[in-house]
Specification:
Layout lengths: L5 E7 L5 H12 L4 E7 L8 H9 L25 E4 L2 H5 L10 E4 L12 H24 L7 H14 L5
Parallel strand pairs: 1-2, 1-3, 3-4
Helix pairs in contact: 1-4
């Protein structure tokens, strides 16, 4: 278990903003112990331009970023997931595919920055705020003592992470 790399799938409806941000953040903060993926139930087919701008501004490589269906991760040959987190309320209420290996799941709802209307500054702030919320939650995840928590205790902690931080900044 000590050398195990934990695969984490972040789900959203469109897979154009929040789930892409979470994938990038985890792949940086996970420092090789965690590997992030993202997908959507109804992918938009393109990543929101503000998502890409923010990731580039935060010095993330964006070559990974593409909007894709969660079906890719339920198909034979897909990486086995250890964790699946929904980051939008719509995806949390949808019937998800059956994930091989029974990964642990939790809902980490974050307001949709792509739905924000207003000035460019207000819209960019919404993306930055989503990034901040996801980064805080992911920091807690990667700090958990995975080898010393039993499945029930780990599930409790995952649920707490989604509830304990402010949903809006």
């Amino acid at each position: 278990m000590r050398d195990h790399v934990f695969n984490v799938l972040f789900l959203c409806t469109g897979n154009s903003a929040r789930s892409i941000l979470a994938e990038a953040i985890l792949n940086r903060q996970g420092q090789g112990r965690f590997r992030g993926f993202s997908a959507g139930s109804y992918p938009k087919g393109t990543v929101h331009p503000y998502t890409l701008q923010l990731l580039k501004m935060m010095n993330h490589d964006t070559s990974f970023a593409r909007s894709k269906s969660w079906d890719e991760f339920a198909a034979p040959g897909a990486p086995a997931m250890d964790f699946v987190f929904t980051v939008c309320d719509d995806a949390a209420s949808e019937v998800c595919p059956i994930w091989p290996g029974q990964p642990m799941t939790a809902h980490w709802g974050v307001p949709d920055p792509a739905a924000v209307e207003g000035t460019d500054a207000e819209r960019h702030f919404a993306f930055a705020d989503a990034y901040r919320m996801l980064s805080n939650r992911i920091s807690i995840l990667v700090s958990l003592p995975m080898t010393s928590l039993d499945r029930l205790a780990l599930q409790r902690r995952l649920d707490e992470i989604g509830r304990s931080l402010p949903r809006a900044g």
